[in-house]
Amino acid sequence: MTDDIKQLSYEAAFQELQDLVAQLEGGEKTLAESVALYERGRRLSDHCQRLLEEAQLTVRQVDAAALFD
Question: Residue 19: which of 9, 11, 4, 51 has the closest Cα?
Answer without folding.
Answer: 11
